[in-house]
């Protein structure tokens, strides 16, 4: 099989498709086991909205994870994800995120509190990139792409690649939040064109005054051409890296398409995959920006 992944230029679908994420608390049986397996393989403490949205289509999601699981558990996948993260985090420094730790200290934040925020950001800095790679492969396959080569052997990754942090994973859901935080959520969705508030932002809103301050800086950057250009470059780099991966699970466009068509019209599922393939490059840039705000500086 040739390496032939490709996708049109990054584009937000219009109109936005309806998405129906299946939350972890609503799963049981085979789907609950699949969620647990995915989190264990990716070494993440949460199911991304992207995969919960895919799970609404059970045959599609089942075939997708059957085919991607051996890859996601492999060293080539972990290495590619790490390379994509490095690319994003190095380039986000060109946007010159303003330092935030000093302003937090002036507001009364102690060193341990700031370290807790850093730890939470680190969880997403690690975990978002596997989800982006999955979204890249998924949409490309539904557009008829293929990946892998004559030799699709992929040595497994041994040990941990996830950050060694024990930060409690708590989300500030909209119905938990006070009016100022809900206003920040509304501003995020309006500014970024989001149909929902990402898990990342809801986790960081656990520190409301930090989150409002961080978003003010991020918003000023997010509307600029260089910020948007970096999201496009991350999108393109993900396609390049995904196209070079082996295919130990033998996942094909034909099999994934056939599974999708058992669940819904193919156009519907393609549009859902297009939405997340658009959103995730911007999300990883934004989280890299939040991370850079809190980099320890001499």
Report on the architecture of this protein.
- It is a single chain.
- This protein is mostly helical and 298 residues long.
- The protein has one domain.
- The protein is 61% helix and 0% strand.
- It has twelve helices and no strands.
- The longest helix has 32 residues.
- The protein is globular, with a radius of gyration of 19 Å.
- 40% of the residues are buried.
Structural class: mainly alpha
User: What pattern of helices and strands is seen along the backbone?
Assistant: HHHHHHHHHHHH
> How many separate structural domains?
1
- What ranges have pLDDT less than 50 throughout 5 or more consecutive residues? none
| Sheet with most strands | none
Shape: globular
How much of the sequence is in beta strands?
Answer: under 5%
What is the multimeric organization of the chains shown? single chain
How much is the radius of gyration in Å? 19 Å
Tally the helices: what do you get? 12
